[in-house]
Design goal:
Layout: E1 9-15, H1 22-32, E2 37-42, H2 49-55, E3 59-62, H3 68-78, E4 83-86, H4 98-108, E5 112-119, H5 127-144, E6 156-159, H6 160-163, H7 175-185, E7 190-197, H8 210-228, H9 230-259, H10 265-304
Parallel strand pairs: 1-2, 1-4, 2-3, 5-7
Antiparallel strand pairs: 4-6, 5-6
Length: about 325
């Protein structure tokens, strides 16, 4: 079905200094999806990535703003297709799995399939990255109620209506987290399929920073939680402030009941201030929750305005 008549497939490969691996990646996807258009978006590479990609027959375009998020934003805006296959240009993802992923997306009319990574060699998926992925995935599940087992996978297949309704606001490698939250918030039909994950070819180096990118992803999750769940975010903050205010107010109340005096005026003023801020947090959460609901409805309507994936039973 991946070669179904009338279904256009685009393979999107964001790249930064992938001279050693990009030709192998292009060849793999061309063999797996012979009818697909393969796009390589170069992100200011300083090696021969552009020349090698052109020589391998890909359509090469450039994004000058540094960061994977900027590249994904540009790719989603520029390319038109019915199905989008996104992977990295480092030959770590299994191109041979792409037809099965595309077939499932079309057969079940899904909006996204995540290629969950199964390491083929120990070096392909460092222990620190594995632990960080599990930690962030678990946090996302707790904050948003459901999640995927590999939210940081860069191997994904999208429908047109996902791509054209996704705002892509992230700058760097946290884009995968934003993609996952977008799907969860709009309750899109999605699936997750295990796919092999290989070590980089010799001469290819990872651009990931375990701690730097991990912190950015964690910050993105918390920011998205504040934006998408304001009543819980600000309600929790207000509740904590209210508890502190009560804890400070109890001794004052006991002293007043025994003596009729309030000797610690600074503490009384602090309790009053904390109570006011706690109430403001609660009302801010209620107001922002109404705003978010309206914004989510607009996003959902824009999503529904795009054509559904072709195929299906």
């Amino acid at each position: 079905m991946a070669d179904a008549v009338g279904v256009t497939i685009a393979v999107l490969l964001p790249c930064y200094n992938e001279e050693a691996a990009i030709a192998q990646t292009i060849a793999g996807f061309r063999a797996a999806l012979p009818g697909a258009a393969i796009y390589v978006y170069d992100n200011n590479s300083t090696d021969r990535t552009v020349e090698v990609a052109r020589g391998a027959g890909a359509v090469v375009r450039r994004e000058r703003i540094q960061g994977k998020g900027a590249v994904v934003r540009r790719m989603f805006a520029d390319v038109d297709a019915d199905v989008y296959v996104m992977a990295d240009g480092d030959a770590t993802y299994d191109a041979a799995s792409a037809p099965a992923l595309v077939d499932r997306l079309l057969a079940e009319q899904l909006d996204m399939i995540v290629g969950s990574r199964i390491s083929q060699v120990q070096e392909s998926y460092r222990r620190g990255h594995r632990f960080g992925n599990a930690l962030l995935t678990g946090m996302l599940a707790r904050l948003f109620g459901r999640s995927f087992t590999d939210i940081l996978s860069g191997y994904r297949v999208f429908s047109r209506r996902f791509v054209k309704s996704f705002p892509a606001l992230s700058a760097g490698f946290e884009i995968e987290t934003e993609i996952s939250v977008h799907a969860l918030e709009l309750r899109m039909p999605c699936a997750e399929v295990e796919t092999p994950y290989y070590a980089r070819p010799e001469g290819s180096a990872s651009k990931l920073s375990t701690y730097g990118d991990g912190w950015r992803i964690l910050s993105t999750i918390l920011t998205l939680y504040r934006i998408e769940r304001p009543i819980l975010y600000f309600g929790t903050l207000g509740g904590l402030l209210a508890l502190i205010a009560v804890a400070l107010a109890v001794p004052l109340a006991l002293t007043y009941a025994a003596t009729g005096l309030v000797p610690r005026f600074p503490t009384a003023i602090l309790v009053t201030g904390l109570g006011i801020v706690a109430a403001l947090c609660l009302f801010a959460g209620l107001i922002l929750d109404t705003v978010v609901r309206g914004r989510r409805e607009v996003r959902r309507l824009f999503y529904l305005a795009q054509p559904a994936p072709p195929g299906g039973a």
